[in-house]
Design brief:
With 183 residues, this protein is of the alpha/beta class. Helix content is 36%, strand content 30%. The strands form two sheets. A six-stranded mixed β-sheet has the order 3-8-7-6-4-5, with helices on one face. The longest helix has 20 residues.
């Protein structure tokens, strides 16, 4: 059907003999039994589903160097990140204390001796409000600066949580690995 004919059919209906039938080209083209339209619907629904899944992603995990563990008898120090203005060091310290570790932050007491240094990084994103997109926490041995363990958590805007919950997810993933290694 030509473009002009389909426009004329849409606006004026089909003329069969002396009878005017008011069926439009639009209703013919949106008929679900039409295979071309069905394919378009499937592509649209698939695209919408894919975009909603991608927009709702969250990942978390951890890594402990083989032969190492998170020892509750050691003293941990969370080093303040120079660009952190939102107090992630305090949140990390609080979450680690809840797990039973002896932790302090560099900003609260620099005179204490420690065994493990904790370094962190966080990325904040704007989507109507500021939210913590991801956090990366790394545990280093004081003397050698060797990596002992690391943990991370990432959440996109649609599945965002409070910063303390995101930090807790990362630390919990690390302690899950630690408990498996201790067995």
């Amino acid at each position: 059907m030509s473009f002009v004919r389909s426009l004329r059919t849409y606006y004026f209906g089909k003329c069969t003999g002396s009878k005017l039938q008011l069926s439009s080209a639009l209703s013919e083209n949106t008929n679900p039994s039409n295979p071309g339209v069905l394919v378009k619907y499937i592509i649209f629904i698939s695209s919408a589903l894919f975009l909603s899944i991608v927009g709702c992603s969250s990942t978390m995990g951890g890594y402990i160097v083989p032969g190492e563990s998170i020892d509750r008898n050691l003293v941990y120090m969370v080093e303040k990140n120079a660009i952190d203005e939102r107090g992630l060091d305090e949140i990390i310290s609080h979450q680690l204390k809840k797990k039973g570790l002896k932790v302090y932050t560099e900003s609260t007491d620099t005179s204490k001796d420690y065994d493990v240094k904790i370094v962190y990084g966080g990325q904040w994103q704007w989507d109507v409000t500021w939210y913590l997109l991801n956090v990366d926490i790394r545990f280093y041995e004081k003397e050698s600066s060797l990596l002992l363990a690391s943990a991370y958590s990432q959440r996109t805007s649609l599945v965002r949580k409070k910063p303390s919950e995101i930090v807790n997810e990362a630390i919990s993933a690390l302690f899950t690995l630690n408990n498996k290694e201790e067995r």
